[in-house]
Amino acid sequence: MYTTVNEDGVLNNYATEPQMYYAEYPAIWEQRRYIIQGAFATLFVVTFVLVAFSVS
């Protein structure tokens, strides 16, 4: 933890900052997995909406 003291003796604590890194573009197999997850999520939500409309 990084601490500073001003002229009045007040302490200021600062959190240590994590190491920064750049994100990498997803690989082809990761992109396919994201598409499949999105399709299942869309199907899941549409199913719930249709069930809610049919029940009401």
Structure, explained:
By secondary structure, the chain is of the alpha+beta class. The protein has a domain at 23-56. It is 50% helix and 14% strand. The chain contains one helix and two strands, in the order ββα. It has a two-stranded antiparallel ribbon with strand order 1-2. A hairpin with a 5-residue loop joins strand 1 (2-5) and strand 2. The longest helix has 28 residues, at 28-55. The chain is elongated, with a radius of gyration of 25 Å.
In brief:
The protein has 56 residues and is of the alpha+beta class.
What characteristics describe this protein?
56 residues, alpha+beta, two-stranded antiparallel sheet, 1 helix, 2 strands
Strand content: 5-15%
Sheet with the most strands: spatial strand order = 1-2
Shape: elongated
> Which ranges are low-confidence, i.e. pLDDT below 50, for 5 or more consecutive residues?
none
**How many DSSP-defined strands?**
2
Helical residues, percent = 40-55%
Structural class computed from helices and strand pairing: alpha+beta
Write the layout of secondary structure elements.
Layout: E1 2-5, E2 11-14, H1 28-55
